[in-house]
Write a structure and sequence with these properties.
Layout: E1 18-28, E2 43-51, E3 57-58, H1 65-68, H2 84-92, E4 103-105, H3 111-119, E5 125-127, H4 130-134, H5 143-149, H6 152-162, E6 165-171, H7 180-189, E7 191-202, H8 205-209, E8 222-223, H9 226-232, E9 238-246, E10 253-260, H10 271-286, H11 288-305, E11 308-312, H12 316-325, E12 333-335, E13 353-354, H13 358-361, E14 364-369, H14 373-382, H15 384-388, E15 392-395, H16 405-413
Parallel strand pairs: 4-5, 4-6, 6-7, 11-12, 11-14, 12-13, 14-15
Antiparallel strand pairs: 1-2, 2-3, 3-8, 7-10, 9-10
Length: 418
């Protein structure tokens, strides 16, 4: 049985004031594709909040993990990995480590890092098995379920089978934690007293600064920036030993290596830094309706003056973009060449997902991309016949070379070069 859900109200600060930033109303689960457009949908009230004492943006009443679990076993999410070779070299150089060190991982997202340790001659490697270590019977589950089962009740079972580690890799799961306090305590108990925990989370600074509302995702409860990330560990008696911000075109990867320390005291952010964090988040909330009107106007005018619009990429970013900005009336369909998505319907908008052939067959005039830069280039290169017949590409991301002008302007105003 899934452990009971706990809210995230006080997070690592425990007693700090949390205030509402945005109430987005009922929203669908982005991974719950529909078999037909008449199907009833599960929706959940989506509210984004901020702790004014720590600057951490958060969702305090998260969607239950049981509802987030994918209904399709082919759903996957990829994280950036170009920095992992450098990260592993820095971990190996930590004091007290040698090739006999036990290296552990929390989820499948740690596998590629553990493989690098194996190639470096580290053989004492393990990773939590959802079924054997956590008692998760269902298949196809993801981070949303693993974080829910990382409880003190399951801790003894893991330690009895795996022992305690010298290094524990924890990539892209902290931001999913529904009960961060319990999550941190379990992780600390999985390492030796002198052990290290390696955390990796996405950097939300740019997304919040440029008002990229696709960053809001029901699966993410915590929205870290470098300041809030580095600051959070002291509240949980963890000492920051190493930190690096690895840059990527879409969102940076923040890495922290920490050790337990009973003597460390909570570190309060400097007033200037805290004010900057809070102001950035409040501007993000304040500008939603302004950008919503501008984006709706663009889609409406283009459709009236030029013709059909389709959105390429049936993922959670595109799903959020269409639902938050209320664009379903302006879009013909979603496009995705994943064979198992074809014929399904998107959550919220209930628009059909079709293959890229419809760019030509359905006389689409504008193809709006919701892809990372590398995939974006491939899609454009593979669909030059669409361009030759007068079709246009644009992007929902301000950093793209073909971004919607309003989104590009947001980025420039926030001080980010294209």
């Amino acid at each position: 049985m899934l452990p009971s859900r706990k809210t995230v109200t006080d997070h690592f600060a425990r007693t700090e004031p949390v205030v509402e930033l945005l109430d987005l109303g009922p929203q669908p689960i982005c991974n719950r594709f529909l078999q037909n457009p008449r199907e009833n949908e599960y929706v959940y009230p989506m509210k984004l909040n901020i702790c004014e004492a720590t600057g951490l943006v958060q969702i305090n009443d998260p969607v239950p993990a049981s509802e987030l679990a994918p209904r399709f076993n082919w759903i996957t999410y990829n994280e950036p990995e170009a920095h992992l070779d450098d990260l592993v070299e820095n971990i190996i150089a930590l004091p007290g480590l040698n090739h006999d060190a036990k290296i552990g991982g929390v989820s499948f997202k740690d596998d590629s890092t553990l493989e690098r340790f194996n190639k470096k001659g580290f053989k004492n490697i393990w990773r939590i098995d959802p079924k054997e270590d956590l008692g998760i019977a269902q298949t196809g589950i993801g981070i949303e379920t693993i974080q829910a089962y990382l409880t003190t009740d399951n801790l003894k079972k893991i330690i009895s089978r795996r022992g305690k580690s010298d290094v524990l890799i924890v990539r892209h799961i902290l931001e999913h934690a529904h009960d961060p306090l319990q999550f941190w305590e379990v992780l600390k108990d999985l390492i030796k007293p002198s052990g290290y925990i390696v955390f990796e989370v996405p950097d939300c600074t740019q997304a919040i600064a440029i008002c990229d509302y696709t960053t809001i995702w029901e699966e993410h409860t915590l929205y870290f920036t470098p300041a809030t990330f580095k600051n959070c560990f002291s509240y949980n008696q963890l000492s920051l030993k190493w930190y690096k911000n690895y840059p990527y075109p879409f969102e940076n990867s923040l890495i922290a290596i920490v050790q337990p320390s009973e003597n460390i005291q909570p570190q309060v952010l400097q007033d200037k830094i805290l004010q900057s964090e809070v102001l950035r988040a409040k501007n993000f909330a304040k500008n939603l309706e302004v950008y919503k009107e501008k984006i709706q106007n663009f889609f409406r005018e283009f459709k009236e003056q030029n013709g059909k619009i389709a959105l390429f990429g049936a993922g959670h970013l595109a799903c959020t973009f269409v639902n938050i900005f209320g664009l379903k009336g302006y879009i013909e369909c979603f496009i995705d060449d994943h064979p198992q998505k074809n014929g399904l319907f998107m959550p919220g908008s209930k628009l059909e997902i079709k293959g890229s052939r419809v760019l030509i067959d359905d006389n689409i005039k504008l193809c709006v991309l919701s892809l990372n830069p590398l995939s974006e280039k491939k899609v454009i290169a593979n669909n030059q016949s669409f361009v030759k017949q007068g079709g246009e590409f644009t992007s929902i991301f301000g950093g793209s070379s073909c971004a919607l002008e309003i989104l590009r302007s947001n980025r420039k105003e926030a001080g980010y070069a294209n």
